[in-house]
Amino acid sequence: MTSDATAVLPVLQELDAFIRSTFDVAADDPVFTSDVHLFDNGYLDSFGAQQLITHLEATYQIKISDNDLVKYPLNTLTEISKFVVDRRRGVR
Amino acid sequence: MAELLLPISSEATRKHMQYAAWFADERVERVELRGGELAVGIRDAADGADAAAIRGKLERLAARFARMDDFEVREVFRTERPGEARDVIEPYDELVARGWVVPLGVGQVALRGLALELLEFLDDRFVRRVAGPANARREYYPGVMATDRLNRTNHFSSFPEHVQFVTHLREDLDVLDQFAHELREAGGWTPAILGKLPRPMASPVVALNPAVCYHCYASVENSQLPGDGFVVTARSRCHRYEAGNHRTLARLLDFTMREVIYVGRPDFVKQERERGIALVRAVVEDWGLAAWLETANDPFFTNDFEVKAAFQRQNDMKYELRLPLVSGSLAAASSNFHSVTFGKAFNITSRGRPVCTGCTAFGLERWIYAVFSQCGLDPAAWPAGLRVDFEAWQASHG
What we know:
Largest sheet of chain A: none
Helix content of chain B: 25-40%
Largest interface: A-B, 24 and 29 residues
CATH architecture of chain A: Orthogonal Bundle
CATH superfamily of the largest domain in chain B: Bira Bifunctional Protein, Domain 2
Number of domains of chain B: 2
Oligomer: heterodimer
Structural class of chain B: alpha+beta
CATH superfamily of chain A: ACP-like
């Protein structure tokens, strides 16, 4: 079983809001979508990544290991949201 | 001298600890790999409690780098030497014997003769062939940086072990007179003199440059870029304290770095960086050097090493160009994408967003060492591409 759209959507919305507010993304930024590569497009750097992980662990009560960062693509809001849902279900 | 043996199962962690263990304690005197163990020689370990404390520090450090085997190394390109190439040599002793390299202290050298010519040749070619096609503007930067600016780069928190602060005697006639008096009494400088003075040194407000590109970002702080971005090139002395790891020309305390620096919109920086990689590849191919470009990470020293390093690798934020030596290889250049770290740190924006930055960096003394290692000390016997290019440079530089 993997993440479905219904479960992913609220996580995606919450993450969208977190990243917009924490990393100063303008509301009308045309590039910022749920599938934009957050690092390639300059929304997050390695320091921002740390903040994001801390937020995910605290908000969703999950543990993200260094191995996860290497193993799973966690570059877009969609990828991160799916990972969060799967991890909460114990799938990944 | 006591010896501590640390079993470390991960090969990558063992290798990294061979470097990092030198920073665990001032009394570390020797670090070597012995099978699956790290052997650390300790001087003046007065009793078992001291040795236990040092072991504790080493174990803490090893835990920081415990997952390095998980990091996948991806090769971007590889170049080979010509079929008739001579054997790779270890050139350092001969360079010293010829007087082209003069050791002046730990991690400090004087260069003369062919070694100095080679440094200037390499730098000229990197400027012409890598910076030139990007229309890079040439700039000049100081050898020190204000500590408050360096703080904004996260350098202190990421690489505290490398920092070299610069300070001076306080502006206080009593301190200055007492310093001069103690100096006369001691018959010259000894480190013990400072211990005889009450609070003699000012708190450091500058530190030696650890990298060239920080100055570029500082020079345009609080600005909005009009276009997609710009490219700068500069050469500067850089300084990194690396404890017992300084050796030959491969790891100097004080070295010369040429950087090509990209500042602007994400696509602009990524495209310029990609072009830089292709240009570097063309240079090493033309010169007949063996090299490969691979994914890498900065050696973050702090507890968050693995998170930062994993993200750097996952996102191809750092590549190193490695040139093989007699034993192992040397990272002589790097290609970096910093995302918005420095754009945010220095409030540089483009169309309302913090700019991205990147750079291609060349450690010139490492290049000298790699060229002599792979090609020998006689330019007449160098691979044709390198020889012809070097001779052309010599002819145009008198």
